[in-house]
Specification:
8-stranded mixed beta sheet; FAD/NAD(P)-binding domain; 2 domains; 5-stranded parallel beta sheet; binds NADP nicotinamide-adenine-dinucleotide phosphate; 18 strands; 437 residues
């Protein structure tokens, strides 16, 4: 008889890892859970393409995989440090923001404790309804391994934690050229392109967000023979707002409030607070980049460029390089610029679940999740849970690490206890912002 999982998780990044932890701790309370995760990558890795030397987290380590849900969990960042023998040294660094390298190591350490539940190298091809005698009992997930073998698994519920997919500007749609890469592929792809070029190389970085800025700085520091142009649609690099009152929008307790708003009001709030997360850069990094431009002025060595309010209208590639047709959004004119490499630091799409859920279309009433991140399958107890693609309904924190610990608790309680999120306080007092809404 085919094995039946309580839930099957697609993707094993931080969201489903936090869920695996919450599920294990829930099971330790005497309940049994039988779960399984499928991950496309051959091994655990978190944004390996953006592990830029020295880059730090922008979210406090206290918002790790478990602390906000259960500070006594063995999966907290502090316990990781203790087990690695670095807790005291970390305290001496005096920071809430570890390097991304260390955070990746923490996540990998936690993921390694779930090897028995995760199947790596499995690409999910389709999700279908699991029907018996006309009754919908759950889902069937069809995946393909790296050697092309197809497998079908059954589960009562499905949890999608797919992460983002590269967002590519229209002009680059369909351009398959190894000299064009997305920021998510930066580390690993850039080195062979630039190292040993034996001449000056021209690199364009498209975008004005944190990824673009970190990549710009890395290029200028690690590759002294690279002349780098940042090309952004905005007028200037702008700082991210991480001031304390504003930061309350990332409190898990804020989600209740934002979920209760009308669509129009939620949209207004997303727009109002966009500068906490999108197309913005850490202020200290902006200041260092400004200093780089100031020094090249001082030395009369105009190498790097900041091309603001510009958009790429077209791309042409030949052996000599990549020719970008660049439109000036203020003057309205166009010019042609040549580069050897283009890095698209143009952010992420979070719509991959739409295609994956196509096979359940006939059983779903749309793709709008309830407060429990849940899409109910009609005439059935089976549900699909969405992690990281509910920004429109659950707010700006949804795509970030901030809410992982609490969200995973809410999903576990919904699956195993039928309890609804938002019906109990997280034991935290209401924030300033929540009471103001
Ligand atoms: P992002 O904030 O979404 O920024 C994307 C940039 O690309 C924006 O400047 C956007 O400009 C531009 N863009 C988008 N589509 C474009 C198009 N078609 N043509 C031209 N420009 C286009 O993406 P990100 O910088 O990758 O950051 C994503 C998330 O990762 C953020 O939460 C960020 O904080 C996080 N991150 C964290 C770290 C760290 O922890 N150290 C490092 C990197 C990233 P418009 O505003 O004009 O659309």
């Amino acid at each position: 008889m085919q094995h039946i999982h309580d839930y099957l998780g697609v993707g094993f990044g931080p969201s489903n890892l936090a869920l695996a932890i919450a599920t294990r701790e829930f099971s330790q309370g005497g309940r049994s859970a039988n779960v399984c995760f499928l991950e496309r990558k051959p091994a655990f890795n978190w944004h390996e393409g953006m592990l830029i030397d020295g880059s730090t987290m922008q979210i406090s380590f206290l918002k790790d995989l478990a602390t906000l849900r259960n500070p006594q969990s063995r999966f907290t960042f502090i316990n990781y440090l203790k087990e690695q023998g670095r807790l005291e040294d970390f305290i001496n660094i005096q920071t809430f923001f570890p390097t991304r390298e260390e955070y990746n190591d923490y996540l990998g350490w936690a993921a390694a404790q779930f090897e028995d539940q995760v199947h790596y190298g499995q690409e999910v091809q389709a999700v279908e309804p699991w029907l018996e005698n006309g009754r919908l009992l759950g889902v069937e997930v069809i995946s393909r391994s790296q050697n092309g073998e197809s497998q079908r698994r059954r589960a009562r519920h499905l949890v999608l934690g797919l992460g983002g997919a590269p967002q590519v500007p229209d002009a680059f749609e369909g351009v398959r050229d190894p000299r064009v890469l997305h920021s998510s592929q930066y580390r690993g792809r850039i080195e062979p392109l630039l190292a040993g070029a034996g001449r000056r190389v021209r690199v364009a970085v498209v975008g004005g967000g944190q990824s673009a800025a970190e990549i710009f700085e890395d290029l200028t520091q690690r590759f002294p023979h690279a002349d780098v142009a940042m090309i952004l649609r905005g007028t200037a690099l702008k700082p991210s707002d991480d001031s304390p009152f504003v930061n309350e929008i990332f409190n898990p307790s804020f989600i209740d409030r934002i979920f209760q708003q009308s669509d129009a009001r939620r949209h207004e709030l997303l727009t109002e607070f966009r500068n906490t997360n999108y197309a913005v850069v850490d202020l200290e990094l902006i200041e260092r980049i400004y200093q780089t431009f100031y020094l090249q002025k001082l030395r009369r060595e105009p190498r790097h460029q900041m091309l603001a309010h510009r958009e790429i209208a077209a791309v042409a590639a030949d052996e000599g390089g990549l020719r970008l047709t660049v439109r000036d959004l203020v003057a309205g004119n166009q010019s042609e610029l040549g580069f050897d490499v283009v890095v698209l630091a143009t952010g992420y799409r979070r719509d991959q679940h739409r295609q994956l859920l196509g096979g359940l279309d006939a059983h779903l009433d749309g793709l709008e999740p309830d407060r429990n991140y849940r899409l109910r399958l009609r005439n059935s107890d089976a549900c699909v849970y969405l992690q990281g693609c509910c920004e429109a309904s659950h707010g700006l924190s949804d795509t970030l690490l901030s809410v992982l610990a609490i969200r995973s608790q809410e999903i576990v309680e919904s699956i195993f206890l039928g309890r609804s999120a938002g019906t109990r306080s997280q034991g935290e007092r209401e924030s300033q912002l929540t009471t103001a809404l």
